[in-house]
């Protein structure tokens, strides 16, 4: 991509006007050419098995927005129009998370999840982000083994980890060539503005989960005049993209582990793992050492201590589930029959489309998109493998549960230089952020980071809330009521709101998250 001044673009609005060539910082928010805004989507029923109101279409967007007259890619979009046009406020776009989550089915999911008085105010809009699903899907030709992203640090295996990281980067580069640098969050935000223009809207409302919170924040930064009612559920910290967001899994898991030891010790009569937090902690680490000596058959596979650390990291955010898992592993280690339940928690299992209306994306699409985006969004990845070794050793000591996983080498060490600088998110756009206290994928410190960065935001904080994703889990909850009030009238709360948990399990509240088969390779997910 040519770095520098963008080509003159046509503004999209009531009247199209020429925009002069802009400096790079300004050019990031320049509008698409009129020919993209003027597309007339050929809407059609997505699938015979789906409601007739669920419509799909395909539009064109520039591969490289600095060269809008060059190559284009296809973007798959969907909609369910309001059944009450007289009450219509506008459109609301959705993103389920990722990077790599498929969003085409989100209107169907959210139609069932949103209260009628809120739903009828909007046309519900879904889309597969560029490179994902049916939107010019990326593939790197990765094997199932190469899609395994969790690599604990061990001196004897580090050279293999380096080889894996280099292989993934090389295969992605070889398969995709000069297209690769343009599959970024910034360009997906630009695609959202094209969708807005194609739909004939001056502004869009938006609900994004997890990675989708960062996408929404970048959109608000680049197109503040195009934002309407924005909800960011379970938020990424823009200051940590992207290595810091993987490392925060380790930082966030330690308080959750401490909480689990206290909770479990208080219930020693039930779980028999120790009657003090110190004894519970010792039981767990003795189990890890035992599994490292002799892998434990949990009924689905044989697990080493490293496997257990990785699998239970997210589980510790839900103490009851973690205690049950450790008891099951203790029994399996003693040769007793296991339940055969996979240790993979639901909210670590990647989004997949439930009953896809069309052909599935390549098997490695989720992994390919994840690395393409997190490596292509920012240049702040170390290039020296030894830096990763030092960091992994340091963080394994600091965060024993997951520190070495979070700081070990990734394909980004060998990725080409990004086409653009990372987006500096720092604005006063009115946004509602939503955060559980005990969230495994975007821990509380991450959600607070997003809230502080968006100076015009208000935060709904669920104190004691567990799980990743809040909205739509319980329409009667304090959090859902606050969100629905904002989506209904556009007025942010006067102050931040602290809620109690609803009593329902909120993990996987995002209705696009569904369990995947146990042995399907899982891409990383925010």
What report would you give on this structure?
The chain has helices at residues 24-27, 34-37, 106-113, 116-119, 158-176, 185-198, 211-222, 243-265, 268-271, 277-293, 305-312, 319-333, 365-376, 385-398, 403-407, 444-453, 478-489, and strands at residues 9-10, 18-19, 44-45, 55-62, 72-80, 90-95, 122-127, 204-209, 227-233, 296-297, 302-303, 431-438, 457-466, 497-499. The chain has 526 residues and is an alpha/beta fold. The strands form three sheets. Strands 3-4-5-7-6-8-9-12-13-14 form a ten-stranded mixed beta sheet, sandwiched between helices. A two-stranded antiparallel sheet has the order 1-2. Strand 8, helix 7 and strand 9 (227-233) form a beta-alpha-beta unit. The relative contact order is 0.15.
Concise synopsis of the structure shown:
This protein is of the alpha/beta class and 526 residues long. Helix content is 35%, strand content 14%.
Topology readout:
Blueprint (H helix, E strand, L loop, with lengths): L8 E2 L7 E2 L4 H4 L6 H4 L6 E2 L9 E8 L9 E9 L9 E6 L10 H8 L2 H4 L2 E6 L30 H19 L8 H14 L5 E6 L1 H12 L4 E7 L9 H23 L2 H4 L5 H17 L2 E2 L4 E2 L1 H8 L6 H15 L31 H12 L8 H14 L4 H5 L23 E8 L5 H10 L3 E10 L11 H12 L7 E3 L27
Parallel strand pairs: 6-7, 6-8, 8-9, 9-12, 12-13, 13-14
Antiparallel strand pairs: 1-2, 3-4, 4-5, 5-7, 10-11
Helix pairs in contact: 6-7, 8-10, 8-12, 10-11, 10-12
């Amino acid at each position: 991509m040519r770095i520098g001044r963008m080509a003159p673009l046509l503004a999209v609005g009531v009247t199209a006007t020429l925009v002069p060539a802009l400096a790079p910082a300004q050019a990031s928010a320049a509008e698409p050419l009129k020919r993209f805004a003027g597309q007339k989507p050929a809407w059609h029923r997505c699938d015979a098995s789906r409601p007739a109101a669920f419509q799909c279409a395909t539009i064109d967007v520039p591969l490289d927005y600095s060269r809008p007259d060059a190559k284009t890619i296809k973007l798959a979009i969907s909609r369910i129009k309001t059944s009450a046009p007289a009450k219509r406020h506008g459109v609301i776009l959705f993103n389920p998370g990722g990077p790599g989550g498929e969003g085409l089915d989100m209107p169907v999911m959210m139609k069932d999840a949103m209260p009628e008085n809120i739903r009828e105010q909007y046309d519900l809009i879904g889309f597969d982000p560029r490179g994902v699903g049916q939107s010019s899907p990326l593939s790197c030709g990765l094997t199932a083994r190469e899609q395994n992203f969790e690599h604990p640090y061990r001196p004897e295996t580090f050279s293999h980890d380096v080889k894996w990281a280099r292989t993934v980067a090389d295969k992605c580069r070889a398969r995709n060539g000069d297209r690769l640098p343009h599959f970024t969050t910034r360009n997906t935000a630009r695609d959202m503005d094209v969708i807005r223009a194609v739909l004939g809207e001056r502004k869009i409302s938006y609900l994004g989960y997890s990675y989708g919170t960062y996408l929404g924040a970048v959109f608000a930064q680049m197109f503040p005049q195009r934002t309407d009612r924005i909800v960011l559920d379970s938020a990424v910290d823009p200051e940590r993209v992207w290595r810091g967001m993987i490392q925060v899994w380790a930082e966030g898991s330690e308080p959750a582990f401490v909480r689990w030891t206290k909770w479990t010790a208080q219930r020693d009569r039930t779980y028999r793992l120790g009657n003090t937090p110190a004894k519970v902690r010792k039981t767990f680490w003795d189990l890890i050492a035992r599994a490292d000596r002799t892998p434990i058959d949990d009924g689905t596979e044989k697990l080493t201590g490293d496997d257990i650390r990785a699998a239970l990291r997210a589980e510790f955010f839900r103490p009851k589930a973690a205690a049950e898992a450790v008891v099951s592993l203790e029994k399996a280690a003693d040769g007793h029959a296991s339940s055969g339940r996979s240790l993979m928690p639901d909210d670590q299992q990647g989004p997949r489309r439930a009953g896809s209306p069309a052909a599935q994306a390549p098997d490695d699409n989720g992994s390919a998109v994840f690395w393409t985006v997190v490596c292509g969004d920012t240049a702040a990845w170390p290039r020296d493998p030894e830096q990763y070794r030092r960091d992994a050793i340091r963080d394994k000591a600091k965060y024993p549960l997951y520190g070495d996983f979070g700081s070990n080498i990734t394909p980004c060490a060998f990725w080409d230089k990004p086409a653009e600088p990372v987006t500096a998110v720092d604005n006063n756009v009115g946004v509602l952020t939503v955060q559980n206290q005990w969230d495994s994928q975007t821990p509380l410190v991450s959600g607070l980071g997003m809230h502080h960065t968006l100076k015009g935001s208000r935060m709904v904080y669920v104190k004691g809330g567990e799980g990743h994703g809040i909205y739509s889990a319980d329409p009667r909850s304090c959090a859902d009521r606050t969100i629905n009030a904002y989506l209904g009238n556009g007025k942010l709360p006067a102050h931040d709101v602290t809620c109690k948990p609803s009593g329902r399990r909120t993990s996987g509240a995002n209705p696009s998250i569904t369990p995947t088969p146990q042995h399907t390779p899982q891409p990383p997910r925010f």
